[in-house]
Amino acid sequence: MRPRDITKLGQLYLNKGMWNDKQVLSEAWIQASTQPHFGNDAYGYHWRLMQINTETCYYATGFGVQRMYVFPQLDLVVTMVQQHYRSMPEGDRATRNILNEIIESIGNH
Predict the structure, then answer these.
(1) Domains within the chain, CATH numbers bracketed
(2) C-alpha closest to that of 71 among 61, 56, 88
(3) Are 30 and 22 in contact (CB under 8 A)?
(4) What element of type H or E holds 33?
(5) 65 phi-psi bin (left φ>0, alpha ψ -120 to 50, beta other)
(6) 6-20: b or e for each residue (b if 16 or more CB lie within 10 Å)?
(7) What sign results for the dihedral spanned by CA atoms 79, 60, 33, 21?
(8) pTM (2 decimals)?
(9) What is the pLDDT of residue 84?
(10) Span 54-71, pLDDT tens digits
């Protein structure tokens, strides 16, 4: 998938299942899939749940720190594709730093 296609999935979730004025996923599924399950507060149905700064988000992750974040309160989807499979900790830190900068810049406006 191209980053723009991944971002479209995030936008679909951000819009509570609506795409081009059509409900293509149920809002109930969107809500359920992005809540904690399986006794793990950090995991929904294939979504990881977290906070960055004070902003709640959920994200999908792929090979090599390819991630798509949805920040419902900010009306924001961020997709990042990196090639850090062998150095995941570095990729995680870089991703976190970039997201912190994005959130701080939004807060400053």
Answers:
(1) 3-107 (3.40.710.10)
(2) 56
(3) no
(4) helix 27-33
(5) left
(6) bbbbbebbbbebeee
(7) positive
(8) 0.87
(9) 61
(10) 899 999 988 777 899 999
